[in-house]
């Protein structure tokens, strides 16, 4: 009796595996095949974003200082 149930479950899982993977947001070996390359790409983008943030922050500070000087000169 249990063998019939096992066969049924195996058949069900075979038919529904793609939907189960999608529904549960599971990864497959194919998804992780280029994991290191994708991770390096993300790390590279983080470095670029960090640098942009530093430069933008510096420019913003400079602009605020200049705006403060203009306000002081107007008074």
In short:
With 75 residues, the chain is mostly helical. The chain has 3 helices and no strands.
Report on the structure:
The chain is rod-shaped. The protein is mainly α. The chain has one domain (2-74). It contains 3 helices and no strands. Helix content is 88%, strand content 0%. It has helices at 2-23, 29-32, 35-74.
Listing every helix as H and every strand as E from the N terminus to the C terminus, the arrangement reads HHH
Report on the biggest sheet.
Answer: none
State the end-to-end CA separation. Answer: 93 Å
SS-based structural class?
Answer: mainly alpha
Report the radius of gyration as a whole number of Å: 28 Å
Oligomer state of the chains in this structure:
single chain
Strand content: under 5%
Count structural domains: 1
Low-confidence residue ranges: none
Q: Assign a percent range to the helix content.
A: over 70%
Shape: rod-shaped
The average pLDDT is: 90
- Number of helix segments? 3
Structure summary, number of beta strands: 0
Per-chain topology:
Blueprint: H1 2-23, H2 29-32, H3 35-74
Task: Give keywords.
mainly alpha; 3 helices; 88% helix; 75 residues
